[in-house]
Write a sequence for this structure.
């Protein structure tokens, strides 16, 4: 027993451990549901059928998942460089500004050129806002955790000011911009399918989902198949050794925060261009922070992130149905479940590692790799 | 089920005339959807909850309610409630405007309501309040009661609606003090978190008190509780908002600017039940009893008869149109 454990096979690391963690989180959540006097099995059933039971549920689940894929990827990319970017929330928020400015002021662009410009603007604004903490980390040694947290507040204050005083439609109470022209919208699937005569219920599920999948693939390619990715991983593992390898950690820090901010901008594409079609106050609604949980759970691997994002999408959509069907279970309950998932998948991720490793070691004498 | 049976029995007993009313009544399936702030905020959303609860107690007609988690759910839950046959559906807060504009036309036979904003559709009842009028009256009370001639205002989030409170209050203070009174005004923040930051609210109130204010008006949701507490701790007075908050710190809350969302909700549901529900705008001011100042056993010793007379006179003048209180939101400017 005291001998050092053999490393876990990759499938166990990417799939089994997160699954065990989620199961534990659900078990504890079940006890909480039981404590407030509801049937946990029924709750799980409503949650799952609500999230995946019909096309409407699926649409909403994937819509939320799209945002989580983007924010999860943004956090994960920085993880690989050894950076903890807590500022995805703020970066996505500022990215929304970029998308809105482009959509509202570049109306002369033909057709979907406007949408493309808005997407690019979202990425650029997100990256630019992440660049400042990145620069401070690389050249001023200001810790990125602290600066990105504080930058969330700066983003919030800037956007509050702009939406209330500058961008708001005069005479309108809501602090939001005017609606974008339709050629800036990311097309929703129910609209696209209607062209082909296919009926799909009205949901915010839009083409950004495909963009998110593409982004996941690109991130995988970048991290494991390019020289830059190698540099990012090396700096993440050991910045001092990286210098000996001829890698500039400063450059890597800057580049990875830039890319991270650009990925955060994907959330603006999904929510602002895909669903709201206008910039609204606090549109990020904490999704940037959920991205941290998604990245932790997905073990910073794009495939894991997609799966974790879908799980969180289910929690959001199924949770809404649960709150609708069971008035006793309030929206706060969903936050509890999410919190438990974060606790088990993030903070306590090593709790089940040893038992699982021991179990697997007993079964396989010759572990792969 | 119980409800249906009672209706049926009433109908059978009272003949055909009532039967038609009962048939209408049987269609009432009221629902409330709160804003992101949540149901139990001791102020705005909770006021709606209280009004709906009163309706249920008095009529036996149950209501459903729901708190949403994020923006994307607005249209989703509206459609869901409407599809499930709920009507009237009361949405709480101006943030519902856009979603309502989209969903209400899809369900022309359902009744919708919105508080704090106007949605001009044939099946939507828009309930707005003249907060500037109520704030004017509490401004008069503050100026008449203040010994230092300086009073404070702590707002929640920096939005036009809150500036409307502030501007009405400032006008009331200036009116009662012949332009001599000073109003310190601070907003707690620029994000929705500003509605729920009692610590910062308390600090802002303390700073105003340090500058000489002896009465602080809080229009800041849950943040206001920190303002009220800071004033009580410093031995000064405060003014509550939306619901009657006089009881929170008895002897230290001078009065509250009441915004009767509870009455409005109750009335809307009752009208729907009685078949007298009407779409369109209801602007509820002092005249309609939509806003008022609170006077109860907790603050009756704080408000002297002279002050009360001044306040009531101002109230009567506003109702009679002799005093025109400027509405900040009409032009986003305050003449103060």
């Amino acid at each position: 027993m005291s001998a050092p454990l053999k490393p876990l096979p990759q499938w166990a690391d990417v799939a089994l451990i997160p699954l065990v963690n989620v199961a534990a989180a659900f078990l504890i959540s079940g006890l909480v549901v039981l404590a407030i006097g509801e049937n946990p099995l029924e709750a799980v059933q409503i949650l799952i059928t609500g999230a995946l039971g019909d096309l409407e549920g699926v649409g909403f689940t994937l819509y939320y998942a799209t945002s989580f894929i983007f924010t999860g990827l943004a956090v994960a990319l920085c993880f690989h460089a050894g950076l903890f970017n807590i500022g995805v929330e703020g970066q996505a928020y500022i990215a929304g500004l970029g998308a809105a400015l482009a959509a509202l002021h570049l109306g002369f662009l033909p057709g979907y050129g406007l949408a493309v410009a808005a997407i690019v603007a979202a990425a650029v604004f997100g990256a630019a806002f992440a660049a400042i903490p990145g620069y401070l980390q690389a050249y001023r040694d200001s810790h990125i955790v602290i600066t990105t947290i504080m930058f969330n507040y700066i983003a919030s204050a800037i956007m509050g000011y702009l939406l209330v005083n500058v961008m708001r439609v005069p005479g309108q109470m809501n602090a939001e911009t005017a609606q974008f022209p339709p050629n800036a919208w990311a097309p929703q699937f129910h609209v696209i399918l209607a062209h082909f005569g296919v009926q799909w219920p009205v949901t915010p599920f839009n083409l950004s989902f495909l963009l998110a999948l593409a982004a996941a693939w690109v991130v995988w390619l970048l991290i494991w198949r390019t020289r830059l990715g190698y540099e990012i991983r090396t700096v993440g593992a050991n910045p001092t050794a990286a210098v000996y390898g001829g890698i500039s950690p400063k450059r890597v820090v800057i580049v990875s925060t830039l890319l991270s901010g650009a990925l955060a901008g994907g959330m603006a594409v999904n929510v602002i261009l895909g669903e709201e079609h206008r910039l609204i106050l606090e549109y990020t609604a904490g999704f940037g922070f959920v991205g941290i949980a998604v990245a932790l759970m997905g073990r910073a691997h794009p495939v894991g992130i997609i799966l974790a994002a879908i799980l969180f999408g289910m929690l959001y959509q199924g949770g809404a149905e649960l709150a609708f069907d069971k008035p006793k279970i309030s929206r706060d309950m969903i936050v509890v479940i999410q919190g438990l998932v974060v606790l088990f998948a993030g903070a306590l991720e090593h709790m089940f590692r040893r038992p699982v490793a021991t179990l697997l070691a007993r079964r396989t004498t010759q572990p792969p790799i | 089920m119980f409800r249906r049976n009672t209706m049926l029995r009433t109908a059978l007993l009272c003949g055909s005339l009532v039967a038609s009313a009962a048939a209408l009544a049987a269609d009432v399936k009221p629902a409330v959807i709160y804003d992101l702030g949540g149901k139990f905020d001791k102020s705005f959303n909770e006021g709606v909850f209280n009004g709906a609860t009163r309706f249920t107690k008095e009529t036996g007609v149950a209501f459903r309610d729901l708190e949403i988690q994020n923006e994307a759910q607005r249209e989703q839950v509206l459609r869901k409630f409407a599809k499930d046959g709920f009507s009237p559906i009361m949405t709480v807060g101006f943030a519902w405007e856009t979603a309502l504009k989209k969903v209400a036309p899809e369900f022309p036979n359902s009744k919708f309501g919105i508080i704090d904003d106007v949605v001009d559709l044939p099946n939507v009842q828009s309930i707005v309040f003249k907060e500037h009028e109520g704030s004017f009256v509490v401004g008069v009370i503050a100026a008449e009661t203040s010994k230092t001639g300086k009073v404070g205002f702590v707002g929640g989030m920096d939005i036009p609606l809150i500036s409307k409170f502030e501007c009405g209050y400032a006008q009331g203070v200036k009116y009662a003090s012949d332009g001599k009174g000073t109003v310190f005004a601070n907003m707690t923040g620029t994000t929705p978190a500003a509605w729920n930051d009692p610590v910062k609210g308390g600090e802002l109130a303390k700073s105003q008190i340090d500058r000489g204010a002896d009465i602080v008006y809080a229009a800041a949701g849950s943040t206001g509780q920190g303002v009220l507490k800071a004033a009580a701790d410093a031995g000064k007075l405060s003014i509550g908002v939306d619901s009657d908050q006089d009881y929170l710190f008895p002897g230290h809350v001078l009065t509250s600017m009441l915004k009767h969302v509870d009455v409005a909700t109750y009335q809307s549901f009752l009208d729907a039940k009685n078949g007298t529900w009407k779409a369109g705008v209801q602007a509820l001011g002092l005249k309609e009893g939509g806003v008022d100042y609170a006077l109860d056993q907790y603050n009756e010793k704080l408000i002297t008869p002279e002050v009360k007379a001044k306040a009531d006179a101002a109230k009567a003048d506003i109702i009679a149109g002799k005093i025109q209180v400027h509405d900040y939101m009409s032009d986003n400017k305050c003449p103060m």
